[in-house]
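User: Sequence recovery, please. Input:
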C-alpha cells in the first residue's frame, strides 16, 4: 500500500524520468487492513539526498 501512495507525491525532478522504490525502513504496522477497507495516507518529504548525479534518496515520514 505504501508503494501505491508514494506515486501520489507528485514530485518531479527535471531530467529524471524513472524511479525505483528500494523499500522501506523502520515501518511499523499496528493492525491488519481488512479487504475492502478505505485507507488514506499523509506523507511529508523530510530529506532529499543526491547520492550520485541523477541518483537521489528520499526520507519520507508517513
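Assistant: Recovered sequence (62 residues):
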Amino acid at each position: 500500500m505504501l508503494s501505491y501512495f508514494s506515486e501520489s507525491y507528485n514530485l518531479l525532478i527535471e531530467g529524471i524520468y524513472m524511479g525505483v522504490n528500494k523499500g522501506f525502513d523502520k515501518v511499523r504496522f499496528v493492525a491488519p487492513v481488512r479487504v475492502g477497507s478505505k485507507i488514506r495516507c499523509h506523507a511529508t518529504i523530510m530529506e532529499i539526498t543526491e547520492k550520485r548525479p541523477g541518483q537521489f534518496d528520499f526520507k519520507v515520514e508517513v
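The helical segments are 2-6.
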